Amino acid sequence: MKLTGNLIIGAEDVPATEGTMKALNPAINQLIDPDFALGGAAQVHQAATLADEAFDSYSHTSLAERAAFLESIAANLEAVREPLAARAALETGLPAVQLEGEVTRAATQFRQFAEVVRRGRFLQLAIDPAQPDRQPRPRTDHRLQKIAIGPVAIFGASNFPISYSVAGGDTASALAAGATVILKAHNAHPGASEIQARAIRKAVQQHGLHDGVFSMVRGSGNTIGEALVDHPLIKAVTFTGSEHGGMALYRRAQLRPDPIPVFTEMTSINPTFILPAALAERGAQIGDGFSERMLVNVGQACLRPALLVAIKGAGVEALREAMAKRVAEAPARTMLTPGIHGSYLNGLAAMENAGARRIVQGSPAHADVDGQSALLEVDGQRFLSEAVLAQEVFGPSALLVTVEDEDQLLAVARSLKGQLSAAVHLEESDLPLAQRLLPVLERRTGRIVVNAFAHPQEVTYATVHGGPFPATSDSRFTSVGMTSIDRFLRPVAYQGFPDALLPEALRESNPLQLVRLVDGQ
Ligand code: NAP
Q1: How many domains, the chain?
Q2: Which residues form a coiled coil (predicted)?
Q3: Is position 194 annotated as part of the catalytic site?
Q4: Could you tell me if residue 184 is inside a domain?
Q5: Does residue 125 contact residue 144 with C-beta atoms inside 8 Å?
Q6: How far apart are CA 89 and CA 135, in angstroms?
Q7: Full residue range of the structural domain in which residue 72 is found
Q8: Cβ of 371 below 6 Å from ligand 1
Q9: Are 109 and 77 in contact (CB under 8 A)?
Q10: Which of 2, 73, 281, 513 is 20 to 30 A off residue 266, Cα-Cα?
């Protein structure tokens, strides 16, 4: 598939205005063709102006029309499955077969959101009819629906270059809400980004939508991201990446004359607690499962379990041995970027400086950006006294914390900051301790898993991929799952409207046959 390297701004292919960059093949540390255009504030302005012009017509597309558009994006992605996965593999070092799975996931998300749109429940329709005879005052007719928040900026993630990137869940849910989208491509996979952007643009054209429904920009350094967050026509931002980057953008948005919501997904160590009976009965099995999940995607996954807490005693040895075996056998594999690899090494060094012991490591690295897996251990007392041990080290490593007793296990849980997920392994006789642990975890996580590990592939109505800070900047929302659409919606009430002027979904005859809350019922 021929790549032009241009920015995709509406229907226009925009060449470089601020120089060019090449993609890096991290596996062999070599730059690969072609040159990719870098833009600046002027290109952000061009895309934002178009997105604003497109907003009124796109946000008023019928539910059927919008759903069909999302399905066309899914089909267009599937039509480029092989070249897209192949290019993404070159740019990330991830296996092509895994990336083909990401294409399926991305296409599935667009189809799932098409169904969400058709069902119309996201509109959260509510009708409180007039009560002219109500005492002491009559009530006028009030009707509520949710509408799209406006044009939005989406920062593509580096670690899942398709399903969390240009054609990821953020884009699918924003377009489903009726928002127009400007995507900030991640520079770690510019070619894969271009292929996805073209698939989306093709669907825009197939459905005769306004060109400004979707654009993709790219730039060097922080300028382009800052210009997006600052632009007065942008009304919300989503971001997946580092806490440092996410918080810089969040703070920036709050300093605008008109502050806007910034939904960041940043950091999580996904703690796993093994309660005593489960440890004694199946310590080895849990250790094996934990290590397998921790190594997925070379540890570069938001739901990767990175902290394991167990009470010293029966089963700890078997747990440690099983984990050590998996970790020792794990080949060093290419990490996404030299920057992420460097942060991984620094993170491990910081943990060791804080008193964690490296008890085993995987086979040695052959190339500069190979991530060598590592298992570290520390006792509960030390963990509680060194905040750095609870920081995310993004890569194929984990920390085993052995605690003295139940109280120390609970103290470790209480010491944790906000997380995307937590897992608890238990048997029947562990229930009293689990009941004490549960409220501690509920306050700190978006998802609690029993006798398993958080599964990243599930995208459902009940999925929560969020949590208190620093897992995200807004614990009220999820960035994955069908309710992630709520980030891009706001309520509008229509009071005393003649029926003909009401949005179709709120008209008296309910012409779209949607579920509506009428007088609270
Ligand atoms: P990142 O450095 O935070 O960058 C993410 C995106 O935001 C990039 O497009 C970047 O643009 C942009 N950006 C970052 N800081 C910015 C700022 N101050 N102003 C404007 N734009 C800004 O994340 P990354 O490159 O993907 O990975 C770095 C680290 O992030 C990892 O080591 C890991 O710790 C964390 N991470 C976490 C997750 C997770 O799911 N929890 C996922 C991915 C990464 P430029 O590239 O152009 O600078």
Answers
A1: 2
A2: none
A3: no
A4: yes
A5: yes
A6: 68
A7: 11-151+166-224+479-506
A8: no
A9: no
A10: 73
